[in-house]
Amino acid sequence: MSARCFLRRTAALAALGGLIATIPIQARSQQQTQAVWGSEVVRLLYAGRNVDAVQLAKRLAETAPGPERQSAFRIAAQTCVTAMDVDCARDVLETATPFLQSLPASFR
Questions:
Q1: How far, in Å, CA of 99 to CA of 83, rounded?
Q2: Domains of the chain, residue spans
Q3: Phi, psi angle pair for 2, to nearest 5°
Q4: Left, alpha or beta for 85 (phi > 0: left; psi -120 to 50: alpha)?
Q5: pTM for this structure?
Q6: Cβ atoms within 10 A of the Cβ of 40, count?
Q7: Which ranges in 22-63 belong to alpha helices (H)?
């Protein structure tokens, strides 16, 4: 590898590091919180605590901030299906309906 190529790659990595450093800390913490909740739901399901997992998943879907709602609804829906809980699925659908209707037609 030539020195010029090495310098280009180093500069590109430094620029990428600078861009990553500008991501707001709050966005990272929200994503980590959702990941923790998702892993907690999975842990509860594996432990056989389906009722607790369903309650946590529904709370996650209800309280998720706007940008994270899609993945929160996905986690909640998968939890309902895994727990074979029709009432949970109905509740998650009712919670998701306003969000789904607010999306542009091209995303529905």
A1: 24
A2: 24-107
A3: -80, 165
A4: beta
A5: 0.62
A6: 15
A7: 25-46, 50-63
